[in-house]
Here is the input.
Amino acid sequence: MAKTSKLQKIINIKNKKASFEFEFIDKYVAGIVLKGTEIKSLREGKASLTEAFCFFRNGELFIRQMHIAPYSFAASYNHDPVRERKLLLNKRELDKLESKFQEKGLTIIPVRLFINDKGLAKIEIALGRGKKIHDKRQDIKNKDAKRDLDRMAY
Here is the structure.
């Protein structure tokens, strides 16, 4: 029998505002505990990380305010769009992240949500420090300079 190749849609949802608002120190890739309709909605690409943030409760890492739209084909067993979801990391990574998280001015930000080769939903989180206004201005200047150089290349 011939193998049929599945046409797999690449899901890569980014938090574009995060790189502008924060400077990243460390990055980690974590799994997410999801319900059935949540993963189906993610595969359609209906999620938003803009308002999301991570926090610790009883030594476990959770994400709050990540919006996953309700699955359109679910009848009555749909999920809450902005419920707290548990993130899955190694114990060593959790301990390291929690100790750094206790420092003043550091926060954990979701950067990217994607589905890996095995079909599992993963989230890339970053330990970051908020940027000051002059840092943001410098980023804008660098972006404008890069855009001008790209225009001159053509």
